[in-house]
Amino acid sequence: MIRPARLVTAVLTASAALLLTACGSGGGGGSSSDDIKGADTGSGEASADASPTASARGIERPEITLPPTFSMNFESWTNGDPKLQAILDDGRETLRASHAAVIAADPDADYVAFYNEGPALESARTWINGFVKTDDSLIGEVDVFDSQVRINSQGLGVLFYCVNEGKASTKNRKTDKVVGTPADVSPYLQYRTTLQKTSQGLWKTRSVETERGACGK
């Protein structure tokens, strides 16, 4: 997935200033749990394609469906604090939404706007459109791990996590050509996001930054 991954890095970096302000740490690019106080990776593992029920936390949510040809494995995506777990849950759906929209070739899917706002929504749609323009979809699987979460002094959720794209590829809808990440390029991306809680209790992603090679496993 290296071509779209370069696209997402270029697009999402525009939101970096928002993220750094929210973190209040001058960057917060590290991947250790010490970088975000209150991080607790736990020991549970969410199922690959699980999505909250329509009434999770009393919020009516659009359905997000991933096909059998693509899965997302969220490892140790748990926290003992219910408030932080809510951020993890909604952050997970944000990521699932963007990938589902790529596969559906639909940057205007209702679930993309449901979980993103402002610069994050613009970035997500630009990233999805990059696949639509080249007529590419996604196959394989990605592992999402090393979650770090806290609520900062401004009341924003701060969520960092790592994504391993090494077992995922793009597949062209017309030619069936499959392209994976080259051997000389790191398949690992670190996502650095901030989320704003709505009056309904939903944590919507408002800014995103990614860095390739910032974390590994």
Description:
Strands 1, 2, 3, 4, 5, 6 and 7 form a 7-stranded mixed beta sheet that branches. Helix content is 30%, strand content 26%. It has helices at residues 2-12, 16-23, 82-104, 110-115, 118-134; strands spanning 70-74, 136-151, 157-164, 168-172, 178-179, 188-197, 203-212. By secondary structure, it is an alpha+beta fold.
List the helices and strands and how they pair.
Layout: H1 2-12, H2 16-23, E1 70-74, H3 82-104, H4 110-115, H5 118-134, E2 136-151, E3 157-164, E4 168-172, E5 178-179, E6 188-197, E7 203-212
Parallel strand pairs: 1-2
Antiparallel strand pairs: 2-3, 2-4, 3-6, 4-5, 6-7
In short:
This protein is α+β, with helices and mostly antiparallel strands.
Q: Approximately how much beta-strand content do the residues carry?
A: 25-35%
Briefly note the structural class of the backbone.
alpha+beta
Order of helices and strands: HHEHHHEEEEEE
Helix content: 25-40%
Low-pLDDT sequence parts: 2-48
Rounded average pLDDT: 81
Q: Span from first to last CA?
A: 18 Å
Quaternary state of the chains: single chain
Number of helices: 5
The rough form would be described as globular
Major sheet, described briefly? 7 strands, mixed
The tally of beta strands, per DSSP, is 7
Give the C-alpha Rg. Answer: 16 Å
Keywords:
5 helices; alpha+beta; 217 residues; single chain
